[in-house]
## 1
Amino acid sequence: MNAIANDAQALLDSVAPAAIEPAHLIARVSAIAVKLVYPFIARNDVRHYLNGINIRPLEDGSTMVVACSGHRYIVVRDPSGFADSEIIVSISKDALKHATSAKHTLDVMSNGSAMFSDQVAQPLFIQPGNSLIVAEFPRIERVATLAGYKEGIVGAINPKFLYDALEIGKTFGDSIRFFTRDAESPLTFVLGGLGDLECFGGIMKLRDSMATLPDWLPLPGEVNSLADL
C-alpha cells in the first residue's frame, strides 16, 4: 500500500504546476468618458451586451467608448485612452460615484477586474466580480452618419432621451448641436467643449402622432402676431 502511495506522490511531483499568468491591464479610459456614456446604457436588457459599455481601440491609437440601448447611442473618443483589444465592460452605479475628475480613469484588467483609479493609478473603487461581458457589440458606424443631414430637429423624439442629451451637454460641454435628415432617421447630436474628448450620439425617432394641430382647435381670426391677440 505504501508503494502505491509513493508511486502516486512521485507522479504528482513530476507534473509541473500550471503557470498562472498574472492579471494585466487591457484597457484604460477617461472616467469622464465613462460618465458621459453611462446614461445611454441599456437597463436589464435581454441583449446582455447592451448592459455594458464598449471600449474599442482605433487605428490612430486612441480609444472609442460607446453605449447603446437600442433606442439611442453615444460615442466618446478618448485620445489618451488605451485598449489592447475590443471589450465590453459592465459599470455599476456605485462605481460611477468615483468618476469625479478628468484625471481619473477606468482601468480594466485581463481577469475581468474593473476599477476607477486616481491620477497616480491608485484604485478609488474596485467593482466586485468579473466585469467583462463576452459578446459582440453592435457596429455603431452602421447608423452614425451626417450624410444628407441638416441642422435642426425634425420628427417625434422621446422627451426623456432629448433631456438626457441636453443634460450631458449642460454638465460636460459648452454647446450641443442637433442634426436631422427626415422624420424617420435618427436625430444626431454633437457636443462641444469637452477638453480632449470628442462626443456625438443619436436618438431613434418615434412612430407618431401629431404632425398638425388637432382639428378640435377653433378656426382662428386674422392675426399677424401674438401681440395682436
## 2
Amino acid sequence: MTVGDRAPAFTLLDETGSPVSLSDFTGRNLIVYFYPKAFTPGCTTQACDLRDRHERFAAAGYAVVGVSPDPVSRLARFREEHRLPFPVLSDPDHAVAEAYEAWGRKKNYGREYEGIIRSTFVIDGSGMITKVWHNVKVAGHADRLLGEIA
C-alpha cells in the first residue's frame, strides 16, 4: 500500500464483539495502526502513547483504531487495563493485515516467521491513503505521527 491507494475495505470485531468497518469512518480522517500482540512491551507502549495523545489526534480531526490478530477477549482486557479511548480490532486470520501489506516475513533473534509488520496508515474521509509507515519504531512514533498530520 502506498500513498494515493484506496484503503482496503474491512469489517472486524472490536473488543466488545461489535463489527467495525472502514466505511463507518466515511467523511472522517482515520489512523489505522497494526500491532503484533496485546500486552507485549512494545505494543503496550505504542497503544498508551496513542492514548496519551488521543485528544490531540481528535482535535486535528483524526479517529484511531488498532488492529492485531488477538482474539476479542484479549483485546477487551487490553483496552480496559490501559484505558484506551479508541477501538482495538481483532484480525485473527490476518486477512486485513495482509490486504494492507502489514503481514509478512519477520526475523527475531535469527528466527524467521510470518507475522504483523508494525505499520500505520492515515486514511482520509474519502478512503484514500495519505500516509504510510512500515516497520514502525515505537519510541516517538505517536509524536512523529502528530507532527505529520497536525
